[in-house]
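Changelog entry

Holo records now carry the ligand SMILES as an explicit input line rather than a separate metadata file. Below, a converted record for zinc ion, shown in the new format.
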Amino acid sequence: MLVKFWGTRGSIPTPGRLTEKYGGNTSCVEVRVAGKLVIFDCGSGIRDLGISYFEEFGTTGIEAHIFISHTHWDHIQGFPFFPPAFVQGNTFYVYGTAARRASISSLLSGQMQPEYFPAKLDDMAASFHYRAFKDAVDLGDGLIVETAELYHPGMSHGFAIHHEGKKVIYATDNELNLGLKFKDDNAGYSAGYVNPRETLLPHLIPFFEGADLLIADCQYTDEEYLHKATWGHASVSAVMTVMAEANVKRLAIFHHDPLHSDRVVDEIVVDAKNYLLRNEIYIDTFGAREGMVLKI
Ligand SMILES: [Zn+2]
Ligand SMILES: [Zn+2]
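Structure line, unchanged by the conversion:
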């Protein structure tokens, strides 16, 4: 499996010199596996991904599976700017949750009403197939995408790609802290958490278990989280606690806060590594960078 990061930022694109190491485009990750193209989320990073498809494959005959975690702006705002969508002869399968009252096509078309964008969803000339997912999607050729509900206002979903014994997970916009409990409420983070297997949504540890790569929302330092609880994103120690319990092998820190310069993201990565060191846990941990390619 090849994993490429096209957008790693949360909330809003943040171009500029202060974010050039980790990138300013919002959430978009591409996975190439079993001869298929799989895309997680349509943040602003999907624009460059689309341009790269033209360069690599030509303008027509492109086929990809697009999974949408949820429809907050930073996960769909690049969709109207995905150039292959406007070319006849391309085919896209778009998966959104079946748990919402509105279908994924109507939610995507909402941001393309004439008040917001000059072209409508129906003006996209590629062939689109919209599908509602529940628990898992079978893409054929031994490729299964398992889904799981995460902790997020309005709900977000994580996706686990399984192929030939490998497991890569994309799980962003996930406030794991809400499912954890402190050992001592008065001592907070310094006392650590109760075993997350006993407190987290019961499906989540098995969902993360043994992942070869987990791309996870780790937006806040522990200090910041104290002021941003219930905003829908996790803190460093919460993510590390859960990843350790689930025996994750590699962790990409993702969905960087728009207020965080490269220097702050570097500090979050150091915080994460220190947390693991203190607790004698080995997980290969790094900050996801736009343009980074991983072979799993
Ligand atoms: Zn987000
Ligand atoms: Zn969100």
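Spot-checked after migration. The helical segments are 45-57, 73-76, 104-110, 196-199, 204-208, 222-228, 236-245, 262-278. The chain is about 25% helix and 25% strand.
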